[in-house]
């Protein structure tokens, strides 16, 4: 099994695991009292995970888009684009769940600011992955 395929499958499994954990995150987000600015609450933790997923997808999508599509040894070039799409989708979905479940504004500990950030970065990652995927389909 080639190393690149192994890395793609491992990354997809990891991202899929976070994506399946998103409904559980919506249940954990309900908190009765506002938290201090330095407390890492469950909502803030999930928004951090979602933002990091979206950021990873944006980086992978940018690299897939910047890489020459006709370079020898790159295969079809679709694996990076697909990983960017999946990571961006997972980040956007988790961010959307955080925003939907938040019962307070910024500073209450629900992670609403991070949820909005994850939503935006996830959408950017999906756009970059989509562009890289269409370019890979045109050249491959």
TrEMBL record:
Superkingdom of origin: Bacteria
Record's signal peptide: 1-21
The keyword DNA damage is annotated on this UniProt entry: no
Pfam families the record matches: DUF6223
UniProt keyword annotations, A-Z: Membrane, Signal, Transmembrane, Transmembrane helix
Segments traversing the membrane: 45-69, 81-102, 108-133
Protein name (Swiss-Prot/TrEMBL): Membrane protein YeaQ/YmgE (Transglycosylase-associated protein family)
